[in-house]
Each structure stands twice: as C-alpha cells, then as structure tokens.
Amino acid sequence: MALSRKAGFVAVAYAFGVTMLSTTLPTPLYPLYRGAFGFSELTVTLVYAAYAVGVLAALVAFGNVSDAVGRRRVLLPGLAAALLSAVVFLTAADLPMLFVGRVLSGLAAGLFTGTATATLVDLVPDRDRALGSLVATLVNMGGLGVGPLLAGVLAEYVGAPLRVTFVVDLMLLVPAFIGVLLAPETVTETSRSRRPPLAVPRQVRAVFGQAALTGFAGFVVLGTFTAVSPAALSQLLHQHNLAVVGVVVFVVFAASTAGQLALPLFTTRVGLPAGAATLTLGATLIAAALWREPLALLIVGGVVAGFGQGLGFRAGIAAVSTAVSAERRAGVTSALFAVLYIGISVPVVGIGIAAQSAGLKTASVGAALAVAVLKLLAATSLLVRPVAEAER
C-alpha cells in the first residue's frame, strides 16, 4: 500500500532526520570508547573522519543516481547502511569495528543527503519548493543535533550506554525503512533519463560556488564541535558529564535550525553574507572561550556560530535547489553536500594532528580562528558579488 504524497513527505522527512541522528550518536561516547579500547585523541579524529570516506564515496558514486533510477532505490540502501552501522556499533569489540561503523554511517549520510533533499522538494507542489527545501535542511540539522543529545543522556544516566544507545537507534531506523518503502516514487518512467554526470551545470556554477564557499566553513565548525568537543569540554573546561557534552553539541545544531528558520526575514542575497558574518563572530567567540576556558562563553559562541551557519546553509541550499532543473537536482545537491562534508570531516583530522604536537587548546583555538578568517573572506566575497547577481 503506497502512501499519499503528504504522508510520503512526512515519512521521508522522518527517515532523513533519523538517518542523520544516527551519524552523530557516537559523539558523546568517544571518551567511553577511548577508555575501553585505549586510543589517542588523534585516533578519535581519524575514527570521526572515516565517516567522510563513506560520505564522499556515496556522493561521488551514487549521489546523482536517483535522478535516473528513482529516489527510493537510493534511499532504501541508505537506510540499510544506517541499520548495518547501528549493528556494528552495537556489537563493537575493538577499534577496527568503530572504523567500519563510521564508514557505513557515512555511506548512509552520503546516499541520503542529496537524494532525500531532492525527494522532499519533489513531493511538494512547484509553488512550495521553498517549503521542501526548508524541511530538508531542518531535519538534516535537527537530526545531527538530536543524536549527541540522545546519546549523551543515555550515556550518563542509563546502564550499558555503548549497547543501549544503538538499540534505540535500531528502534528508530526500522519504522523509517518501512516509511520510505511505502513512500511514493517521484521519478516516474517518463521522467527518467540517462544518468547525468555528477557535475554542476554552467548556468548554476556561480550560485553553487557562493553556496559552497559559505557552507564549507560553517560545516568545519559543526565538525569541530561534533568530534573535538568531548575532549575539549573534559580537558579544557573540566566538564565530565556526558549529558553536558550532548547538550552543548545540541545547542549548536539547534541554533543552526533557528538560523534556517530566520531566512524568510532576509532575501537570499542578504542571507548568505549575513550568515557568513555572524559565523565569523561566533568562531571568534569560540576561540576566546577555548583560550580563557569559560563554558558560558563557549556556549554563546556556539549559538552565534550555529545561527550563522544555519542562515547561510539554508540560503545556499534554497538558491541551488531553485536554480537547477528537477532532472539534475539530486546530482547538483549531492555535489554541494560533497563540498560541505569535506568541511565537516577532513579538517578535524588536522586538528587531531595539531593537538598531538601543539596541544588540544592551541589546535582548537587555531582552528576556530582559521574558520573566522575564512568566513570573513566569504562574507566579503558575497558583499562584492551577491548571490542574486550570480543567479541572473
């Protein structure tokens, strides 16, 4: 029995959120894994970055496949990868299993992000494309934020957190799989085409470049918070409660969601540079907090940075989604997410390497300041050549 388009929209949005939630569940658990398996902070960043391997492999190999074979044929394997990842983490007995679980998690995210975004846009009438784009970005960021919060609470207050957390994950993913299985297919036989290349059409390259520029540094901030915050909160700010770790990460993603909701107050032309400028301020506050070590300032900096990231992220996704034709939408969206997920994962490894030689404080402060400089350059570029000009 197939679902209606409205019910299918809800089912895909739920599946999108739960899939992204599952990718950040391990965040507060890294200190527990370090204690159980005995590895360094650099290894934590490598385990985290293994996620990027899966994401980029899926985006490059399959990010545009749904434009030709249909959305569900990509979404269902994505959910299968998420389910396998949860099983691997549930049964993890050594470090290699953590790497396998993270790669599978990355595959799930890579298969889902561009395709689920395109599906949600497809499932609404053409006049409501902005709504589809909004829901896609909200469930993406919301899922990423709820994951650490849920895992942190379970880790702090429930026994056997390295097992219970992923039992809960499986319980959330199973109905998501069923919902997508029953959702309507939006790529019909008449609209199917030969698989287009994973490339950005000439007419949208300018707006794509602006969206990628402002989104990259924002995702560096999210990646840093997700991968490094457990160690930073413990070693620098002396916070050992894992629920607090989850709350701090959640607050950043919640602020990102608020930034996305605020976009209607701006035009895309204003939203992208405003988001870049706000994130510049937030990254500067984060650097000051890590140097001086007050928790309150770190949270304020995270909120400001998250708001700026969300504002710029939604403005970029909306601009790209509306500028490209339906038959190329998943491919172009996946190309944008490939850039963003490099930002959320790869620079984190650099922080881990720097922490080995210069210390966690110096590495983290340096990363925050580098993001501030990058976002300042992005804001300047967007003011000199606004995205609205690129769209013409």
Descriptive overview:
The chain is mostly helical and 392 residues long. The protein has a single domain (5-185, 200-391), classed as Up-down Bundle (Growth Hormone, Chain: A). Helix content is 82%, strand content 0%. The chain has helices at residues 5-24, 30-37, 41-62, 66-69, 72-90, 95-122, 129-157, 161-182, 205-235, 242-261, 268-292, 295-323, 326-358, 360-384, 387-391. The longest helix has 33 residues, at 326-358. The N and C termini lie far apart (44 Å). Residues 8-392 form the Major facilitator superfamily (MFS) profile domain. This is MFS transporter. Keywords: Cell membrane, Membrane, Transmembrane, Transmembrane helix, Transport.
In helices, the fraction of residues equals over 70%
CATH homologous superfamily placement: MFS general substrate transporter like domains
CATH class: Mainly Alpha
How much of the polypeptide forms β-strand, as a percent range?
under 5%
Please identify, by name, the CATH architecture. Answer: Up-down Bundle
CATH topology: Growth Hormone, Chain: A
From the alpha-carbon coordinates, what is the Rg to the nearest angstrom? 20 Å
The run of helices and strands is: HHHHHHHHHHHHHHH
Number of domains: 1
Give the rounded overall mean pLDDT.
83
Judging from the principal axes of the Cα atoms, what is the shape?
Answer: globular
Counting DSSP E segments of at least 2 residues, the number of strands comes to: 0
The major pleated sheet works out as:
none
Count of DSSP-assigned helices: 15
Regions with little confidence, pLDDT below 50 for 5+ residues: 388-392
* Cα end-to-end separation: 44 Å
Summing up helix and strand content along with how strands pair, one would put the structural category as mainly alpha
InterPro entries: MFS, MFS_dom, MFS_trans_sf, MFS_Transporters
Subcellular location: Cell membrane
Domain Major facilitator superfamily (MFS) profile: 8-392
Organism: Jatrophihabitans cynanchi
